[in-house]
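Usage

Read records sequentially. Each one opens with the input sequence:
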Amino acid sequence: MPPHVLLTTGMAGSGKTTFLQRLNAHLLTQGKKTYTINLDPACERTAWRCNVDIRETVKIDEVMQE
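and closes with the structure output:
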């Protein structure tokens, strides 16, 4: 079966993080492998382990100063 990709976008406070946290937990309980990417440099923390996290290369304080 080919991998599935889900890109979640939306306004701040719309429930993206909650949705993804619950989806990731559900998939893991089903024995599915997940690969998560955080593209929000302003995100303070995630409730799951990110395979790729933009916060490792983009610092929000530096972006806000520019």
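Summary fields computed downstream for this record:
- The chain has two helices and two strands.
- Residues 42 and 64 are 10 Å apart (CA to CA).
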